[in-house]
Each structure stands twice: as C-alpha cells, then as structure tokens.
Amino acid sequence: MWRFVGGRLLQAIPVILAVITVTFFLVRIAPGGPFDSEKAVIPEVKAALEAQYRLDLPLGQQYLAYLSDLARGELGPSFKYPGRSVNELIAAGLPATAELGAYALLVAVLLGGLAGVFASLKPNSAQDYIPMSVAMIGICMPTFLLGPLLVLVFGIHLEWLPVSGWGDMPGDKILPSLTLGAAYAAYIARLSRAGMLEVMSQDYIRTARAKGLPEWQVVTRHALRGGLIPVVAFLGPAFAGLLAGSFVVETIFQIPGLGRFYVQAAFNRDYTMILGTTVFLSTLIVLFNLLSDILAAWLNPRLRAQYGEA
Q1: With 60 as the cut, is the pLDDT of residue 104 above it?
Q2: Which CB contacts under 8 angstroms, 24+ apart, belong to 150-157?
C-alpha cells in the first residue's frame, strides 16, 4: 500500500508542474497587464512597479523565479491588494469556500445516495425511473441557472430563505449548498444505483436472502459497503471539484469566499493571485483523488490484496 501511495505522489508532481507551467504562460500571453487601467500611469511609475514585481525580467527568468518562490511555499504578492500576499488572501477566503463545499458534499451524498439506493431496489420500475430522471435533470442543469431559479422560488416568491450572505441570517447557507451540491447529487445517485445493482446480483447476497434475512438487513448489512465503493472513489474528486467550482455560486449568493478573489484577479490580471489559486486548487484535486483511491482500496478486499502485493 505504501508503494502505491508513493507511486501516486510521484505521478502527481509532473501533473502539478504542468498545470503551473501552462497557467503561467497563458496568463502572461493574455492581452493586457496588471497595471493597464483607465487611469493612465506615467512610464516611470509603471517601470518602477514592473521592477518591484519582477515583470521587467525576461519571461523565462520570471518563470524560474516563480518556481523558486513556490518551492518555499510562497505564492507571491498580490497585484490588486498591495501589501497582502496571495497566501494571506487564500487563507482569508478558504474557510467560507471550504464550508460551502462541505455542506454541498453533504447534500450530494445524502440526496444522491438515498436516491440511488432507493432506485436500485426495484430496477426498471417507476421507483427506478423517477429518481434517475430527476438525476439526469440535475446533471444537465448548470449552477448559474439552478441558483437563480432557487432564489426566485424560495427567496422571492415564497420568501422562505435568504438570497445572499453567508452566516449573517438563519438559513442563508441552504440555497447555496443546494445549488452547488445538486449536480454532484445526481452523479452520486447514478453511481450508487450502478454499484448497488452490481452487488445485489452477487452470490453472497443470494445466500443472505436464502438464510431468511429481511430485505432491509440484506441491503444495510451486506450490500451497502460494496455498492457504495464507486461513490467513495468519487468523493475525493467531488470535494475538490466543489471547491474549484464554487466561484459561480459564491458570485450569485454574494459569499465572501475564495471565488471572490479569483474572479477579481481574472478581471484585474492579478497574475500571482490567478497562479496561486490555480496551484492551490490543483494540489487539492490531486490530494483528494489520492485519498479517495486509498479509501476505495481499503473498502474493496480485492484491491486491498492487489495493493498489498504490489
């Protein structure tokens, strides 16, 4: 197992390096710069600013300097917020983004897992078709459409829930969590249904039924552990995707999270903020993928034996 973990970590290094390289050069070749604005800046001031942020160096030297800072855990100063580093801005916005991602993942697991298991108990029936049809709608509907619809129904017409903010009023975390978690709930529903259908056809399930166990015990005690392995393998990338994909939801519901800084950095050509956030989220995606693979291997005896022998 340790050999497996070490191999995955070694595979992650070139992936993260490729993300850094591509993002660095794409940001640099994009039109405009961090000091281009409607208010004209005199050439002397602009030259001093570029020298302060090392933008006067050749592009290759800028890249090597950034890698050197990154190796020390420094993501550089922000161009948009003078006197503040990218590390500080990420630390300020991450708690709200992580909390939103955690709530959205909880919504996705509860709604998607229950729907998938419920549908798998009677395949090819109305009990199967209805939740899977709803899941398909959830997959097809983007967050920038679902969010305003939920705001229109539950916030404006029914006036049940607040439509903006985070932690300021009771219930203001419900709509953002539902909006962000809906698509992942749909994926989890389909994964859990497929996993449960495969497990329910195994010999040990037929043996449990032959012993006279009630159906609910067959499902909860014998089928769930194996049937939810695809869901467990999906949780790592799902949580990383929720963090990375929360920018639209944070903008719709005015949540003071990491997405606020990232969106502003894109508009203002804040090179270091764009790079730092991309590197941070890429590292999270790789880490959560690794953790989900380890957990899936631990739940699956065949994979555990395979990794143990490797």
Answers
A1: yes
A2: 150/175, 150/178, 150/179, 151/175, 151/252, 151/253
